[in-house]
């Protein structure tokens, strides 16, 4: 094995330009795939954090009275999704609104009646999907005394649709770049093979087995894939360290969310994937060339 | 019996002028059978390239430790004969036995093991230009899965006997033709093969280098190797032959002569 690694390294050295181009191509493909994965990992984490204890706000009808509250709570609890349930009387809601909108408080003071409804703030149990929240909200809306239910249905639903579309596009792009890298690796091996055709012929004449002939090509492919993966990830890490703090600061005014780098498992998976890519490209070429 | 039939056919084809040569051949074959173990046997071997017959009905018996010159003009079929022995080409008809192994029954996975029994020398040397002299010679032992310590020792030893020990790190293109052929001889013998096949080994060498190459081959012959040299250089054959000369023309054996 050491012999084959030495041989492959020597071949990489002797065909520096060709190998450099291949490694750079693999690293660019890995970089693009990793950017998508970084985005998906962080977005998924963000969605997960939103879904954890999804919030549902229930607005009650004007004829709601406090003596109806125990019965309402009982009905909601029976649905089995509630973690915390807080009743917000309309008077409290108005006070809170006045505090929040202190600049417009004069306008609010002119109000004769409180236009706000009584409400219930419900935090659901964790790990709820959007569909589950939607179903829960619909069940609540069916209760007679409930006027309306708000759970961010319009924007969350739209966001999820866009996210899923982006995810599919991402997968398609990843597959495309994987194929491009595979094609280029396979062609590099092909070119390396043609440049070493005499060597292969001589090896055969002196009694080398097919494994002995092929092994350096495979090791070369594996090394190209491995180094391509490492360079791609290193470039992503450098870019992440330069860009992520700025992005986190910019979005901090809207939401608290820290952008994290890829998980260790994902890094290992990417390196494994790129190494496999190098091997597979080599396999495809040699299968055609060394029949 | 097979050989007698073949030669009866051979005599009928070429008339009585070839009779003496054929009797000589038969006597020689009998001698080989009686005194030496046959290492290469060809039975009615023909090779066809498209419509053209490159070898026609060749039957041959080569004993272990024989020194054979295969002579004849260019295009006579000498190289084809060597090529079918190391299976670079497959015989279209006939049977070939190498040390008892039937070449027709050798699978592609077993082919490398057959080739390790041969040492091969070519007119164009067939050295890997990007590898040093040492690496070119070591390749044979690496392919055979020998240990690195053994390879180092053996390669240096063989390069010493061919006078190339001072050029271990040289690349083939920096060497003269004679030096490259010495490296090729070293590569051919490093695995201690029982048969050495040389296809026009002196074809691109000056007379001095050609003689050195032949002397080296003679040395390995003395150590017990069976040597087959294909050459169109009649002068070289006549001045050097210590064994059998098989003359080929138009893909057929025309004459065999034994020189002592």
Describe the structure.
The complex is a heterodimer of chains A (291) and B (260). Chain A is α+β, with helices and mostly antiparallel strands. Chain A folds into two domains: 2-50 and 157-289, no CATH class; 55-150, Alpha-Beta Plaits (2-Layer Sandwich). Chain A is built from ten helices and four strands. Chain A has a four-stranded antiparallel sheet with strand order 2-3-1-4. With 260 residues, chain B is an alpha/beta fold. Chain B is 40% helix and 25% strand. Chain B is built from nine helices and ten strands. Chain B has helices at 2-14, 19-35, 78-85, 111-115, 133-143, 148-161, 177-190, 207-222, 234-240; strands at 38-49, 52-63, 67-71, 93-98, 101-102, 118-122, 195-199, 226-231, 244-249, 252-258. In chain B, helix 5 (133-143) packs across helix 6 (148-161) and helix 6 (148-161) crosses helix 7. Chain B is globular. Mean pLDDT of chain B is 83; it is low at 1-35. Chain A binds chain B through residues 3, 14, 198-199, 201-210, 212, and chain B through 86, 88, 109, 112-116, 118, 120, 126-131, 139-140, 142-144, 148, 187, 191.
Percent of residues in helices of chain A comes to: over 70%
Strands of the widest sheet of chain B, in order across it, are 6-7-8-3-9-10
What's the end-to-end separation of chain A, in Å? 23 Å
Q: In percent, how much strand structure appears in the residues of chain A?
A: 5-15%
| Helix proportion of chain B | 40-55%
Strand order of the largest sheet of chain A: 2-3-1-4
Distance between the termini of chain B: 27 Å
Main β-sheet description of chain A: 4 strands, antiparallel
Instruction: Return the CATH class of chain B.
Output: Alpha Beta
CATH superfamily of chain B: P-loop containing nucleotide triphosphate hydrolases
Oligomer: heterodimer
What is the residue-mean pLDDT of chain B, rounded to a whole number? 83
* Radius of gyration of CA atoms of chain A, rounded to a whole number: 30 Å
The main sheet of chain B comes to: 6 strands, mixed
Strand content of chain B: 25-35%
Assign the CATH topology of chain B: Rossmann fold
């Amino acid at each position: 094995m050491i012999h084959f690694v030495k041989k492959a390294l020597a071949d990489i050295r002797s065909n520096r330009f060709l190998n450099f181009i291949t490694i750079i191509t693999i690293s660019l493909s890995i970089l693009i795939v990793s950017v998508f994965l970084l985005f998906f990992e962080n977005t998924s984490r963000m969605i997960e954090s939103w879904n954890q204890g999804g919030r549902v706000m229930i607005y009650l009808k004007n004829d709601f009275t406090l003596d109806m509250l125990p019965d309402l709570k009982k009905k909601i609890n029976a649905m089995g999704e509630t973690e915390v349930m807080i009743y917000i009387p309309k008077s409290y809601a108005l006070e809170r609104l006045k505090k929040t909108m202190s600049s417009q408080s004069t306008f609010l003071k002119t109000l004769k009646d409180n236009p706000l409804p009584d409400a219930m703030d419900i935090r659901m149990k964790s790990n709820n999907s959007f569909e589950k929240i939607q179903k829960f909200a619909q069940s609540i809306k069916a209760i007679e005394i409930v006027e309306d239910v708000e759970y961010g249905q319009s924007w969350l639903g739209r966001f999820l649709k866009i996210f899923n579309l982006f995810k599919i596009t991402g997968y398609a792009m990843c597959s495309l770049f994987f194929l491009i890298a595979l094609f280029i690796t396979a062609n590099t091996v092909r070119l390396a093979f043609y440049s070493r055709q005499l060597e292969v012929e001589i090896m055969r004449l002196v009694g080398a087995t097919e494994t002995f002939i092929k092994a350096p090509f495979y090791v070369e492919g594996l090394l190209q894939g491995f180094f391509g993966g490492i360079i791609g990830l290193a470039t992503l890490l450098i870019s992440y360290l330069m860009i992520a703090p700025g992005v986190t600061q910019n979005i901090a005014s809207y939401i608290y969310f820290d952008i994290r780098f890829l998980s260790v498992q994902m890094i290992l998976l990417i390196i494994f994937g790129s190494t496999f890519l190098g091997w597979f490209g080599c396999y495809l070429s040699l299968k055609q060339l060394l029949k | 019996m097979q050989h007698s039939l073949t030669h009866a056919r051979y005599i009928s084809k070429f008339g009585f002028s070839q009779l003496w040569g054929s009797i000589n051949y038969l006597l020689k074959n009998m001698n080989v059978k009686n005194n030496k173990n046959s290492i290469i046997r060809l039975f009615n071997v023909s090779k066809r390239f498209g419509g053209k017959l490159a070898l026609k009905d060749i039957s041959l018996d080569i004993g272990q430790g024989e020194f054979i010159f295969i002579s004849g003009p260019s295009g006579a079929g000498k190289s084809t004969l060597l090529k079918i022995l190391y299976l670079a080409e497959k015989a279209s008809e006939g049977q070939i036995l190498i040390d008892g192994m039937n070449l027709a029954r050798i699978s592609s996975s077993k082919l490398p093991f057959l080739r390790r029994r041969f040492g091969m020398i070519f007119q164009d040397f067939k050295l890997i230009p990007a590898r040093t002299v040492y690496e070119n010679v070591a390749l044979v032992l690496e392919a055979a899965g020998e240990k690195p310590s053994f390879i180092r020792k053996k390669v240096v030893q063989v390069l010493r006997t061919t006078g190339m020990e001072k050029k271990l790190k040289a690349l083939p293109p920096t060497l003269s033709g004679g030096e490259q052929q010495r490296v090729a001889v070293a590569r051919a013998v490093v695995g201690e093969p029982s048969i050495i096949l040389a296809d026009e080994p002196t074809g691109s060498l000056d007379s001095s280098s050609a003689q050195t190459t032949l002397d080296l081959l003679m040395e390995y012959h003395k150590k017990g190797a069976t040597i087959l040299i294909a050459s169109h250089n009649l002068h070289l054959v006549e001045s050097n032959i210590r064994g059998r000369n098989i003359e080929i023309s138009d893909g057929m054996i025309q004459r065999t002569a034994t020189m002592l």
